[in-house]
């Protein structure tokens, strides 16, 4: 077997296993975090500190009876969770999760695929994810599921516009669609002391992307597609067993991808401020440390998703749509205009 194909296969298996582990761990973090915020214990029975609770949940999902409503469109009903889960997992393929490691003189970049349109690839897959929600809600033939599917369509399509516009401004700054090149460009400083990170070069774009990311992930205060107090569970009301598990895992994987995108574009990716670790660490150790730095930044945003969920109340539907179309999109367009003017004046 060609060594390059073998390396690519190893990276794919590692990323799939790592992402699946993080998604499972986030179910525990979600519960323990809500317990911490609400002054209660959270899961504490299955394993030390309840750490084996995700494993118990997975076993429960696998062995629960798999029911399909009589009036449902069976083929689409079965396909929808896989569409949603597959798009969430596939989006991470182009995101660099570290710099590189060197083994026997061979450089191995910590990224499954370094494509020159990585930015467009992630946006395209995030656009396809909404089909998993819409198809699942419609195929269930349930009025609550259909309403949740319609809400998810309007919300995700609306908030993909500010996400795309905010990232477009970052592309204007870095002059590339490659996520690795964007990450590598965030070295050095600006104004003599600030790290040359996207959050300092594009503060307004970062704010727009961060808010829109919560809506894209269907997280509170933007969880209108599955509001329990209004439409039971929205698009996945009729789902159970592992099909429901795919929807829930897909949501956490989507959170992980969005957090990784924020880290890559706006938070310096694997770089630390004011220090170049590659000058002080052996190549193999540096690659491992760069991965850990990247994941530490991603972990912060994953915790932010949990923190916001158990802190802010849910918005009304008109507020969700108004924020997207009347606030975030105009701000994103204004940010593009300012970015273009600054680039023109400084070139």
From TrEMBL:
Keywords: Cell membrane, Membrane, NAD, Oxidoreductase, Quinone, Translocase, Transmembrane, Transmembrane helix, Ubiquinone. The keyword Ubl conjugation does not apply. InterPro entries: NADH_UbQ_OxRdtase_su1/FPO. Its main location: membrane. It catalyses: a quinone + NADH + 5 H(+)(in) = a quinol + NAD(+) + 4 H(+)(out). The keyword Transmembrane helix applies. Pfam families: NADHdh. It is a multi-pass membrane protein. It is found in: Cell membrane; Membrane. The chain crosses the membrane at residues 6-29, 75-95, 115-136, 157-177, 197-215, 252-272, 284-306, 327-346. GO terms for biological process: aerobic respiration. Its EC number is 7.1.1.-. GO terms for molecular function: NADH dehydrogenase activity; oxidoreductase activity, acting on NAD(P)H, quinone or similar compound as acceptor; quinone binding. It is an enzyme of class 7 (translocase). GO terms for cellular component: plasma membrane. HAMAP family: NDH1_NuoH. NDH-1 is composed of 14 different subunits. Subunits NuoA, H, J, K, L, M, N constitute the membrane sector of the complex. NDH-1 shuttles electrons from NADH, via FMN and iron-sulfur (Fe-S) centers, to quinones in the respiratory chain. The immediate electron acceptor for the enzyme in this species is believed to be ubiquinone. Couples the redox reaction to proton translocation (for every two electrons transferred, four hydrogen ions are translocated across the cytoplasmic membrane), and thus conserves the redox energy in a proton gradient. This subunit may bind ubiquinone. Belongs to the complex I subunit 1 family. This is NADH-quinone oxidoreductase subunit H. It comes from Thermosulfuriphilus ammonigenes. The lineage of its organism: Bacteria, Pseudomonadati, Thermodesulfobacteriota, Thermodesulfobacteria, Thermodesulfobacteriales.
